[in-house]
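Appendix B. One record, verbatim.
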Amino acid sequence: MSLQSSRREFLRNAAFAGAGAIVAGGASAEESKRIRGKGPGELVNFACIGVGGKGDSDAAEANRLGKIVAICDVSDANIAAALKKYPGVKVFHDYRKMLDEMGKDIDAVTVSTPDHHHAIAASMAMSMGKACFCQKPLAHSIYEARHLGELAKKMKVATQMGNQGTSGNGLRKASAQIRAGRIGKVSEVHVWTNRPIWPQGGVRGAKMDVPAGLDWEQWLGPAPERPYSTNYAPFAWRGWWDFGTGALGDMACHTVNLPFMALDLRNPTSVVATSSGNNKDSYPSASKITYQFPANKDRGPITMYWYDGGNMPPKEIMDPVLDGLKPSTSACIIVGEKAKVYSPGDYGQTNFFVGLADEANPEVDYPHSPGHVEEFILSIKEGKPAMSNFAEYAGPLTETILLGNLAVWAEGKKIDWDAKNLKARNAPEVSNIIKPTYRKGFSLK
């Protein structure tokens, strides 16, 4: 099927899915009833860590399918807005205190904070036996991602990362078709993003007064001390090594999701990057990263290329696939020996198999999803893991993605990666990026 002939079909699909849709279906009335139970005693009691920005929608989903009993945020404005929606819940600025005081009343937590808090908060909650929903990327570092996966497995708690496309049936079907050999042996994957959409590559701003109602010390949390600036909070923290994971960490848990699921892209053996320049404080404004994955029992070796900051795949990759169409600002191309897959957007729900004769989509078996958060609730109540659980999926995906930041830090040096032991064999200088240190009072439980 050519891409041009599929344009009308794509527009029809997009009318239903939305070009940037992230909600992967919803539960039926019967499913909703079963998830909610018959009375308040059967609802999952949530504590929500971070209720502004993405935390606002995460809390709304928790409240839709459960009951919020406590919220934590460093911003009084965020708390005030949340209290209008969830009156009577307990309020905290410090999630450590919330979990200590409210532990017996909590079944599950949502973690919707800047990246540098993810592992600390999720680890403490899981250590207490609580189910955990954590926004992407799962962690701020590779070591943290491995730790959270191992802890989830040890504690036998339900977990899920907030890469909602994982629960989309469009992504799951395309992944199953690729695994079934529809495009033949895959050799390359190309993924690009329109990020960063915040400043990167710059220098720290001048010290500013902390806004009224913001607990800056709690916002910093485990990160090194520094004065407040709007260069970091409330939005641009993603571009700083101490707080975020850059363009790669922000979006690859979405945009790499399709090839990861289809091709099991875990435990690469090497990675190398070039960039616009890394000052070791703010991420580069643009980078290109190359991963090498060894063959496994189901496929041959694969090279994956990542592009951000306006970088794009070369014309010889793009032109035969797009056939004159304007490329999506974020997308992936999977190169097979028989055909290619073009997946425009970030969430992998609409996929074009380019280079195949017109044909009906072959039937493949794949697990259908009732919806992303619905999967999480069912995993709590019934014990069947959500697809993007920490141990088997979200942790390995995050490890793969954040390995690219080691290469960005090393700038041009090819990292020889020992995935089993989480070591860069030839680059001891990246050890602080693999496993960070924390300020006093914060640790992985």
